[in-house]
Design goal:
Largest sheet: 2 strands, antiparallel
Order of helices and strands: HHHHHHEEEHHHHEHHHH
Number of strands: 4
Helix content: over 70%
Strand content: under 5%
Shape: globular
Distance between the termini: 32 Å
């Protein structure tokens, strides 16, 4: 009897989730019609940081590596797209693919020290990698235009110019949904279970035939590719990038988004990105309050809600709980 009830409830649950997803997308598609130009820019920035948080969470939350190369992946993707479009005169979709490829290659490179280094040593090594890339952006004048920055031409998708923030929003929305969908499916697959096994107990995972080294390489490559896509979106949004856009403050923002949203949670990645992109705008008229609010919020989350916003959301809406949420 219980098996029969479960078999009937499964299609109902799938239909409910599908219906809510369609409704949510319909609401998001209508968002630009109620926003002014600046609010539209902030909405676009939220989508960029959702993709950033998803990529960072793969390494930090799902496979549990204390690696801080996220700003490096972000910058590599942004510069790859900007150079491809500006100097190579390539269409945006090709530049986007190159940004993902560049980010993935950077992730593969970072995965090499991750095989031998742990915890704080890995954190320091990856921080150094990010600073080395920023030094490269400044001194590789022929490609990056140095500290002056690089202009990003108007992006075209199938001959349609993305000349307004509203047009960019719909492209960003599609890219964000694709990243969330593909990452969710990845985490639900054998590869996702491998990442979780390595995170929970690396020696035990190795004892049952799982290769922790391969899992780390895969996680870093996927993370780099995802954040590289976010970098391309960021470059198109700003229309100009410079080395200062990818400094330590950018990394701290990414880290805060993931920690407040919730480690090992896609729902938390979305919630953290939306909150921490909107919060500075709500406090912009109060000097110094942004830094205080970020610090207090992070301390409160760590003390009273270690699961982040994802843990709170899971209590209120249990069916939104991520399958591999980090307890």
């Amino acid at each position: 009897m219980s098996d029969a009830l479960a078999s009937r409830s499964a299609p109902i649950g799938w239909m409910r989730r599908t219906g809510l997803a369609v409704l949510g997308l319909a609401v998001l598609a209508c968002v630009p019609f109620g926003l002014n130009d600046y609010q539209q820019y902030i909405a676009n920035l939220m989508l960029v940081y959702v993709v950033v948080a998803v990529g960072f969470n793969i390494v930090l939350g799902y496979i549990g590596q204390l690696a801080f190369a996220n700003a490096a992946f972000f910058g590599v993707g942004a510069y790859a797209a900007a150079i491809a479009m500006g100097r190579g005169h390539l269409p945006f979709l090709v530049a986007l693919a190159l940004a993902a490829l560049a980010g993935g290659c950077a992730g593969a490179l970072i995965s090499l020290p991750a095989q031998r280094l742990r915890a704080y040593y890995l954190a320091i090594a990856t921080l150094a990698f990010g600073e080395l890339l920023r030094w490269t952006y400044i001194h590789a004048d022929a490609l990056t235009n140095g500290s002056t920055g690089l202009a990003v031409p108007t992006a075209y998708v199938f001959a349609i110019p993305l000349a307004t923030d509203r047009a960019k929003y719909y492209l960003f929305l599609v890219l964000t949904v694709l990243v969330l969908w593909s990452t969710a499916n990845l985490l639900a697959s054998r590869f996702g279970r491998t990442l979780i096994a390595v995170r929970e107990n690396e020696p035990a995972a190795g004892s049952v035939g799982i290769s922790p080294s391969s899992a780390k390489v895969f996680a870093f490559v996927w993370s780099g590719a995802v954040v590289g896509v976010a970098g391309a979106m960021f470059a198109v949004l700003l229309d100009r990038i410079s080395p200062d856009s990818f400094d330590l403050s950018q990394l701290l923002l990414h880290f805060t988004i993931v920690m407040i949203g919730g480690l090992g949670s896609l729902v938390g990645s979305v919630a953290g990105a939306v909150l921490l992109t909107a919060l500075p705008e709500l406090l912009r008229d109060i000097p110094g309050m942004e830094e205080i609010a970020f610090s207090v919020l992070l301390i409160l989350i760590l003390l009273f809600l270690p699961g982040g916003l994802a843990g709170l959301i899971e209590r209120v809406v249990p069916w939104l709980r991520d399958r591999y949420f980090l307890e």
